């Protein structure tokens, strides 16, 4: 963050060419060809500075355009091996590249592509989380609605049962008690007569009559009181 603030880096990726603490080149965005061109231009204009610094293990190879690094460019160094491993990761199964600038450009392009894919996946993940939360809320609402409908159904069933639960379809008179047998004794004058025993109760029969017979709404027409 300190370096980004110092050199006013506002976007990623941003490539800076710095000479003696001063930015001599700036490139925003992943453009391998432009990056390669800027690096080669900067190196060609400053090749005289390389001679002032000793290089462990031997001299640096030429920096001319089109130069290819050989396996013996840095004796005893693992730089070439690492670049070969990087090239194998970028293009598995293909012929090895010897131009390190091309390898770096491919690596930058691959990193940019992966970063864009990661951003897209992150956005998709956020959208899926929002949809999952919405579905959870809708599921809870449907559960509550289902419970409410179940309660209403039970209430309606109870109401229907209480509404259609009317009198039985047939009435049976109570059983007639057994008439007591009179004890044998002297027969009174006038014959053996018993008092009538009313053991049957009145049974209402209006409910078995047709509706037209019990309808009294037109009695004033059919049975006028002045007739």
**How would you state the average pLDDT, rounded?**
69
Biggest sheet overview: 2 strands, antiparallel
What is the count of DSSP helices, taking H or I runs of 4+ residues?
A: 6
* N-to-C SSE string, H for helix and E for strand: HEEHHHHH
| Shape verdict | rod-shaped
Summarize the amount of helix as a percent range.
40-55%
Derived structural class:
mainly alpha
Per DSSP E runs of 2 or more residues, the count of β-strands stands at 2
Beta-strand share of residues: 5-15%
Oligomer: single chain
Euclidean distance between termini CA atoms: 115 Å
Question: What gyration radius follows from the Cα positions, in whole Å?
Answer: 55 Å
Strand arrangement, largest sheet? 1-2
Q: Which blocks of ≥5 consecutive residues have pLDDT under 50? A: none
Question: How is the topology of this model organized?
Answer:
Blueprint: H1 2-6, E1 14-19, E2 22-28, H2 32-45, H3 79-90, H4 100-164, H5 211-214, H6 219-222
Keywords: Coiled coil, Nucleus, Transcription, Transcription regulation
Subcellular location: Nucleus
Coiled coil: 104-162
Describe this entry's structure for a reader.
- The chain is mainly alpha-helical and 227 residues long.
- Among the domains are: 66 residues, Glutaredoxin (3-Layer(aba) Sandwich); 70 residues, no CATH class.
- The chain is 46% helix and 6% strand.
- The chain has 6 helices and 2 strands.
- Helix 2 packs antiparallel against helix 4 and helix 3 crosses helix 4.
- The longest helix has 65 residues.
- It comes from Artemisia annua.
- GO terms for molecular function: DNA-binding transcription factor activity; protein dimerization activity.
- This is Myc-type, basic helix-loop-helix (BHLH) domain-containing protein.
- It is found in: Nucleus.
């Amino acid at each position: 963050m300190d370096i980004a603030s110092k050199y006013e880096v506002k976007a990623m990726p941003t490539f800076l060419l710095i000479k003696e603490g001063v930015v001599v080149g700036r490139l925003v965005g992943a453009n391998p060809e432009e990056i390669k061109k800027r690096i080669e231009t900067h190196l060609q204009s400053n090749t005289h500075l390389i001679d002032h610094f000793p290089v462990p293990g031997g001299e640096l190879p030429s920096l001319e355009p089109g130069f290819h690094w050989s396996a013996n460019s840095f004796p005893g160094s693992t730089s070439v091996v690492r670049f070969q491993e990087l090239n194998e990761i970028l293009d598995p199964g293909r012929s090895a590249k010897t131009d390190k600038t091309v390898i770096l450009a491919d690596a930058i392009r691959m990193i940019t592509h992966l970063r864009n894919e990661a951003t897209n996946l992150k956005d998709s993940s956020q959208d899926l989380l929002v949809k999952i939360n919405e579905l959870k809320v809708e599921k809870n609402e449907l559960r509550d609605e289902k419970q409410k409908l179940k309660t209403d159904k039970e209430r309606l069933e109870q109401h229907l049962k209480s509404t259609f639960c009317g009198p039985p379809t047939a009435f049976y008179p109570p059983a007639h008690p057994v008439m007591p047998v009179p004890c044998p004794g002297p027969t009174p004058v006038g014959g053996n007569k018993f008092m009538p025993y009313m053991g049957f109760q009145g049974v209402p029969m209006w409910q078995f009559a047709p509706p037209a017979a019990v309808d009294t709404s037109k009695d004033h027409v059919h049975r006028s009181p002045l007739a």
